[in-house]
């Protein structure tokens, strides 16, 4: 939570002195500094996120899905041995996509944690279905 530099700056502007105007200028300067710091933190987080790549491999190991920094599917690799089981390919692809999306959400939450100073990772974990959360904890390292 960012402090409001204007908090407590008089409610009645009648008869305010030049000293009060200087106080207001200092408060506005502090607000500008805070806004610039927030913008810099956002730009830094976005630059780091730009390099973000999330991967998800299906439980059977036959499909790998890669998401780019926007969360869009950028690559799908299907193992040649999956061709012998065409009925299960769809399930494997969906499983890999879901795992990649969970990884992407966790990486984005980690960026938001840095930027917002709040526990976005916990919010993502809480929103994730229990089965996926447990499976993710077993299979993926946490940062």
TrEMBL record:
SUPFAM superfamilies: YbaB-like. It comes from the Bacteria. GO terms for molecular function: DNA binding. InterPro entries: YbaB-like_sf (IPR036894), YbaB/EbfC (IPR004401). Signal peptide: none annotated. This is YbaB/EbfC family nucleoid-associated protein.
């Amino acid at each position: 939570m960012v402090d409001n530099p204007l908090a407590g700056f008089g409610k009645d502007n009648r008869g305010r002195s030049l000293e009060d105007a200087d106080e207001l200028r200092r408060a506005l300067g502090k607000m500008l500094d805070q806004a610039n710091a927030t913008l810099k933190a956002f730009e830094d987080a976005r630059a780091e996120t730009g390099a973000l790549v999330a991967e998800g491999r299906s439980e059977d190991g036959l499909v790998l899905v890669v998401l780019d920094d926007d969360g869009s599917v950028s690559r799908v690799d299907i193992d040649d041995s999956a061709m012998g089981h065409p009925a299960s390919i769809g399930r494997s692809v969906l499983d890999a996509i879901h795992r990649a999306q969970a990884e992407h959400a966790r990486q984005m939450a980690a960026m938001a944690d840095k930027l917002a100073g709040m526990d976005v990772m916990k919010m993502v974990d809480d929103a994730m279905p229990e089965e996926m959360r447990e499976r993710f904890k077993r299979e993926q390292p946490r940062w």
